[in-house]
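We modelled each protein-ligand pair independently. The example shown here corresponds to the LLZGTKA7 entry; the chain sequence is given first, followed by the ligand as SMILES.
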Amino acid sequence: MSNRLFVALDTPDLAKARALATKVRHHVGGIKLGLEFFMANGRSGVRDMAELGLPIFLDLKLHDIPNTVAKAIMALRGLDPAILTVHAAGGRAMLEDAKAAAPLGTKVIAVTTLTSLDGSDLASIGCSGDPHEQVLRLTQLAKDAGVDGVVCSGEEVAAAHKLWPKGFFVVPGVRPAGGVPGAFGGDQKRVVTPRAALDAGASILVIGRPITQAADPDVAAREIEATL
Ligand SMILES: O=c1ccn([C@@H]2O[C@H](COP(=O)(O)O)[C@@H](O)[C@H]2O)c(=O)[nH]1
């Protein structure tokens, strides 16, 4: 994959998603569609976006019992996204069944610890250890379960990559250097720059608001691309 930047199109509005993707298409390597988009537009919306010719990353972060997740993935048949996410916290059997249910060409990627969480958030949900330890624990689980890779922040990707040299590493929580700290609501707590994430071993970067909320998304994507 020559351009490792995926733009997160977090909108329920199909026309807006298409317009944004059309603007940035020459400066990104793929399009990430999440729950917000899928709930509003479903399969036909994904098909519509696929017409733009860029790889589709369907970020549904599935998390349920193994049978339910496997059936949900089977129900996506025909869309065949390049990348699909599930939560590693669903456990080994769920991860194994998710991978078995996915089409051969779809990478099943396990979310380890959301980039919006820090150590105190983990403690509040009963997880001992810091995000680094939790990411490594779940990366090992994902590797053992036979999925294709994990989502983690740029702060942990070097260690996760060392644990799993052949894994595929998706890194969100990416903010261009020189941005305003805490911009875009400050919901991302484990944040690195695009360059730092790639240098640490990210396979692809996911960037949403720094592009989609820019005055000129095309320029924003181009400026980020130039740093990669
Ligand atoms: O741990 C995670 C997993 C997924 N995401 C998703 O990435 C984008 C990030 O958007 P920004 O606007 O660049 O913050 C968004 O779609 C999340 O759902 C994540 O941020 N962290």
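The chain has a mean pLDDT of 96.
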